[in-house]
Amino acid sequence: MAAAMPDAPVPPATPVAVAVPSHFQSFLAFDFGLKRTGVASGNRLLGAATPQATIKAEGDARFAQVEARIKEWQPDALVVGVPCHPDGAPHENTRRAQKFARQLRGRFNLQVFEVDERYSTTEALASGARDADAASACIILEQFLRSLP
């Protein structure tokens, strides 16, 4: 088994293994993709997520749309789905999603929680979702919300 590089991010634990302050009530979640990023909003009280329009942009254009969503929804924190192989091993998209999470933290000064999102797209497609990206973001956010005390 190859040793992990010291600067390589580690995939998130399942379920979320970080303390989420109880005053964090509202969240925006993202299912990061190179061309499309699914978005969902939700809150701790209801424990449910609502799909939002998928962001179909890259680079700075993506962050302009993220900024508009943050201004609209005013979340307490953000949630990013981080994919990995079925055995939990990281891959290239793992690192891309973690980079996206770091960029969100830096640009918007909000706490960002990373959630293992294995099979979220498969689950979204199996449920017949019309927008698999937004449905995946809902699955990611609801998984996160279920992990909260």
What does this structure look like?
By secondary structure, this protein is α/β, with parallel strands linked by helices. It has a single domain, classed as Nucleotidyltransferase, domain 5 (2-Layer Sandwich). 37% of the residues lie in helices and 22% in strands. The protein contains 4 helices and 5 strands; from the N terminus they run E-E-E-H-E-H-E-H-H.
Gyration radius (Cα, Å) is 14 Å
Mean pLDDT level: 88
Query: What is the rounded distance between the termini?
Result: 36 Å
CATH hierarchy, class? Alpha Beta
Give me the strand/helix succession: EEEHEHEHH
pLDDT < 50 stretches: 1-17
Shape: globular
Output the CATH topology: Nucleotidyltransferase, domain 5
Number of helices: 4
Please outline the major beta sheet.
Answer: 5 strands, mixed
What's the total count of β strands?
Answer: 5
Overall structural class, as computed from helix and strand content, comes to alpha/beta
The CATH architecture can be named as 2-Layer Sandwich
GO molecular function: hydrolase activity, acting on ester bonds; nuclease activity
Keywords: Cytoplasm, Hydrolase, Nuclease, Ribosome biogenesis
GO cellular component, one term: cytosol
EC number: 3.1.-.-
Topology readout:
Blueprint: E1 26-31, E2 37-43, E3 48-55, H1 59-73, E4 77-82, H2 92-108, E5 111-116, H3 120-126, H4 132-147
